[in-house]
Amino acid sequence: MAGHSKWANIKRQKAVVDAKKGKTFTQLSRAIILAARNGIPDPAGNFQLRTAIDKAKAAGIPNDNIERAIAKGAGTFGSDSSNLEEIRYEGYGPCGVAILIEALTDNRNRTAADLRVAFSKNGGNLGETGCVSWMFAQKGVCVVQGVVDEDQLLEASLEGGAETYEMTEDQTAEVFTEIANLETLNQTLKDKGFKVTDAELRWIPSNHVEITEHDQARSLLKLIDTLEGLDDVQNVTSNFEMSENLMALSIV
């Protein structure tokens, strides 16, 4: 799984830019709607909903908005969310980079058309289902901050059923596990005194495409930025690697 934290670093660097778009509110609200619809509308008994609410609160979404999103997911607040469906799209970016897009939409034709335009205008192409997903495996990930003793982290991670962990930056680690075990790992780490700042499902690439040219890097990051800017898009994941210096020079 070497190199999988590259994407996490990219996401963190882009977070400041993304937050200014106001799109974060739409994404997080829809995540709450979906979590409430897929399980019980009570965060105490719905891990997916609980983590979605935590992310929404961290982003500054008002409690009224959060409660309204839960009600929409539960079907007790209008019917405008009843047609929302999860769809995964796949495609290629510049240099043959593989891209996975997770969308939540009430009109799959509109979403597909928007994605096709975004790809074609930025040096990529929207592919068929299965064209790149074979290169990825979905895992549960806990992000842990304030790690001062790796041995303690390793012990807690093993106890929680983790597969592996990786230090991504100073005192920050990402701990990986099977999807079904994410809630158990999250709770075990917290019980052991670790500060878990995020618990999510993430697509991990099995191979990587290294980007070394500035023009290629800029085109690729522009494509990803455009895809993430679409209202129906929840997450975008890719399998590229590039140096932090090149990323800093090329980021949109």
UniProtKB/TrEMBL annotation:
Compartments, record wording: Cytoplasm
Ranges of residues in domain TACO1/YebC-like N-terminal: 5-75
Keywords: Cytoplasm, DNA-binding, Transcription, Transcription regulation
Entry-linked InterPro entries: Integrase-like_N (IPR017856), TACO1_YebC-like_2nd/3rd_dom (IPR048300), TACO1_YebC_N (IPR049083), Transcrip_reg_TACO1-like (IPR002876), Transcrip_reg_TACO1-like_dom3 (IPR026564), YebC-like (IPR029072)
Domain TACO1/YebC-like second and third: 84-240
GO-annotated molecular function: DNA binding
PANTHER family named among the record's database cross-references: TRANSCRIPTIONAL REGULATORY PROTEIN YEBC-RELATED (PTHR12532:SF6), TRANSLATIONAL ACTIVATOR OF CYTOCHROME C OXIDASE 1 (PTHR12532)
Family: Belongs to the TACO1 family.
Name the UniProt record assigns to this protein: Probable transcriptional regulatory protein H6G83_22805
Native source species: Anabaena azotica FACHB-119
